[in-house]
């Protein structure tokens, strides 16, 4: 647990989430608090959630600890049920905090689109075996709610189309810029906005000719921005999907930072990056299915940067509250764990900036 959380008085922490009456009302509305004979109130229930996630207790130990502290009287099985039933309630508390600190994310979009940030993080518990899990999430930035989470082994790849439905705008980082996944997202009736890496996917012009990514970047550097209709193609299956490639050069100082970061990453991974890859690191390359009339390049860039909120949340959860200790594979319990960790991370900081100034995706664009 972070020093910031340890330093917080419990009553003070609860007060930052609203009055006792408001917590009671929200817990009952979410179905988390039903029988007082087992848990005295919403504040005690929230304390159980924090103790389970931050304290590293087993369910049996948590039940004994709660009995000793006169917070609740229940078996470990009943404790499990109560924690799982609290996932949506804790998520609503997270949403309320985020809404205060990130109001731009709840602004309406053309056509009533819901912004869905799709991401995954690696959770590798300590130990010699070092098996790791993937936590796949879909975060509704329009409502500021974690709406789905799936914990899988390392063999299941990240997918932009996971659970996609019509009326969504799915935004994601480079790992999701795969033609087959983009095509599945469009087939589900959703739109996509993803950042493209320097070496994939393949981009074709109207005649089916392969476009050179570095040439496009240099053209964007000369013009200030490039916005072109393309076909995105999978190199193996030849699946294609219509898209726009939008390229914006970063300001010189920001571009140099990202290039230095690319060199450090290559050095850490023990490979030598190509000069073309280093040059292209100074550009923001986006792929989208959105129409240019409602979505000019500057709006696309601003919307894409909202994605950083979910990645920033994962970084904070790992550093502040030990997300690496995730033990839950049940969907509801995993959502409770992640929501509680996120809530703890938010409470541990006085301010939550809308953008991380050190994040390449959030760097300001050239005028």
- The general outline is elongated
Record field, number of beta strands: 9
What is the number of helical segments per DSSP (H or I, 4+ residues)? 14
State which percent range the strand residues make up. 15-25%
Mean of the pLDDT scores? 81
Query: Biggest β-sheet, characterized?
Result: 9 strands, mixed
Distance between the termini: 42 Å
Assign the structural class, choosing from mainly alpha, mainly beta, alpha/beta, alpha+beta, or little secondary structure: alpha+beta
User: What are the secondary-structure elements, in order, as H or E?
Assistant: HHHHHHHEEEEHEEHEEHHEHHH
Q: Helical percent range?
A: 40-55%
Low-confidence regions: 350-367
Tags for this entry?
single chain; 367 residues; alpha+beta; 9-stranded mixed beta sheet; 14 helices; 17% strand; elongated; disordered C terminus
SSE inventory with pairings:
Blueprint: H1 3-7, H2 10-15, H3 20-29, H4 42-55, H5 59-68, H6 76-85, H7 87-101, E1 114-123, E2 133-140, E3 145-153, E4 168-172, H8 179-187, E5 191-195, E6 202-204, H9 213-223, E7 226-233, E8 240-249, H10 252-268, H11 275-280, E9 283-288, H12 297-305, H13 308-321, H14 331-347
Parallel strand pairs: 1-4, 4-5
Antiparallel strand pairs: 1-2, 2-3, 5-9, 6-7, 7-8, 8-9
């Amino acid at each position: 647990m972070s020093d910031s959380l340890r330093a917080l008085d419990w009553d003070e922490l609860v007060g930052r989430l609203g009055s006792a009456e408001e917590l009671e009302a929200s817990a009952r509305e979410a179905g988390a608090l039903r029988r007082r004979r087992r848990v005295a109130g919403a504040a005690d229930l929230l304390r159980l959630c924090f103790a389970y996630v931050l304290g590293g207790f087993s369910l049996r130990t948590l039940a004994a600890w709660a009995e000793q502290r006169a917070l609740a009287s229940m078996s470990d099985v009943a404790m499990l049920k109560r924690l799982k039933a609290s996932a949506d309630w804790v998520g609503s508390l997270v949403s309320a905090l985020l809404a205060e600190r990130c109001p731009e994310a709840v602004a309406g979009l053309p056509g009533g689109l819901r912004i869905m940030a799709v991401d995954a993080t690696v959770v590798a518990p300590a130990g010699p075996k070092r098996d790791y899990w993937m936590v796949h999430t879909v975060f509704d930035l329009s409502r500021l709610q974690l709406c789905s989470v799936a914990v899988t082994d390392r063999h299941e790849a990240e997918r932009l189309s996971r659970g996609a439905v019509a009326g969504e705008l799915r935004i994601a980082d480079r790992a999701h810029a795969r033609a087959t996944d983009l095509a599945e997202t469009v087939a589900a009736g959703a739109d996509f906005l993803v950042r493209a890496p320097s070496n994939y996917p393949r981009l074709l012009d109207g005649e089916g000719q392969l476009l050179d990514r570095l040439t496009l970047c240099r053209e964007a550097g000369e013009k200030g921005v490039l916005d072109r209709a393309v076909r995105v193609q999978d190199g193996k299956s030849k699946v294609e999907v219509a898209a726009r490639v939008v390229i914006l050069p970063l300001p010189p100082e920001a571009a140099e930072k990202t290039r230095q970061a690319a060199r450090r990453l290559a050095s850490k991974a023990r490979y030598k990056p190509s000069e073309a890859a280093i040059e292209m690191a100074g550009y923001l390359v986006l792929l989208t299915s959105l129409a240019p009339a409602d979505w000019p390049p500057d709006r696309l860039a601003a919307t894409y940067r909202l994605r950083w909120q979910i990645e920033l949340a994962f970084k904070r959860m790992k550093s502040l509250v030990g997300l690496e200790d995730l033990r839950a594979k049940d969907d509801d319990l995993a959502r409770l764990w992640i929501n509680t960790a996120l809530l703890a991370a938010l409470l541990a900081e006085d301010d939550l900036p809308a953008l991380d100034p050190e994040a390449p995706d959030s760097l300001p664009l050239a005028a």
